[in-house]
UniProtKB/TrEMBL annotation:
Protein's organism: Serratia surfactantfaciens
UniProt xrefs under InterPro entries: Flavodoxin/NO_synth (IPR008254), Flavodoxin_CS (IPR001226), Flavoprotein-like_sf (IPR029039)
Annotated protein name in UniProt: Flavodoxin-like domain-containing protein
Flavodoxin-like domain span: 50-165
PANTHER family tied to this protein: EXPORTED PROTEIN-RELATED, FLAVODOXIN-LIKE DOMAIN-CONTAINING PROTEIN
Transmembrane segments: none
Length: 216
């Protein structure tokens, strides 16, 4: 029994160590990436393209700003207070990402909860991948949205893999809400200690996603 307790303690400490390391890396990334490519869209420009995104460590936020700048699109950030940087936010993120696989109505509170999408023809929806699926906040956004007549493009930044099953479910939810087309684009950043640079990520987006500028 004593040996078992020691073993469990070692495993628990190892898990906490990994989570602490991930948190430190995420916090450092968020601070560094926030300074790259501020959004430059003028609100006076009646763009027909919008970029809506959720980001925790700043990678998806950088991708979203880059896309919005390239397409002169309006940019909307989704906030989810439960997932703020730090160990509690990471714990909530893992818990809710797991729960969402079991219950499709297990959605977090986001701000804004709803956006008037009437002025837009094309919507880019950005999210990291958590446990092989888009993060819960972007699911909460589509739950509250009407995509009638719109072209929807989901884009994800991710460390390792995503599940085709979850993407197919996301697509179905978007189409049932009126979207006329759905596309999925991803960029693999790599594991925390072996990630591509922000510049490489943006070059990938330019080459693979934006090689031919999309109509606004």
């Amino acid at each position: 029994m004593y040996g078992t307790l020691i073993g469990l303690t070692v495993v628990l400490l190892a898990i906490l160590g990994v989570l602490a390391s991930v948190t430190l890396i995420e916090n450092r990334q968020a601070a560094q990436l926030a300074k790259i490519q501020p959004h430059t869209h003028s609100e006076e420009n009646a763009s027909r393209t919008a970029v809506v995104y959720f980001s925790r460590s700043g990678n998806t936020a950088l991708a979203a700003r880059h896309i919005a700048n390239r397409l002169d699109a309006q940019l909307f950030r989704l906030d989810a207070p439960n997932y703020a940087p730090g160990l509690p936010g990471l714990a909530y993120a893992l818990k809710d990402a797991t729960l969402l696989k079991e219950r499709q109505d297990a959605l977090p509170e986001i701000t804004p909860a709803k956006i008037d999408l009437t002025p837009f023809d094309t919507l880019w929806l950005g999210s990291p991948i958590w446990l092989y699926s888009p993060a819960p906040p972007i699911w909460a956004f589509i739950e509250n949205s009407d995509f009638s007549g719109k072209r929807v493009i989901l884009f994800n930044t991710h460390n390792s893999h995503f599940s085709d099953e979850h993407i197919a479910r996301f697509k179905a939810q978007v189409l049932v809400r009126g979207a006329v087309t759905f596309e999925h684009r991803t960029v693999l950043r790599g594991r925390m200690t072996q990630q591509i640079t922000p510049e490489q990520m943006l070059q990938f987006i330019d080459a693979r996603w934006l090689g031919t500028p999309l109509a606004k």
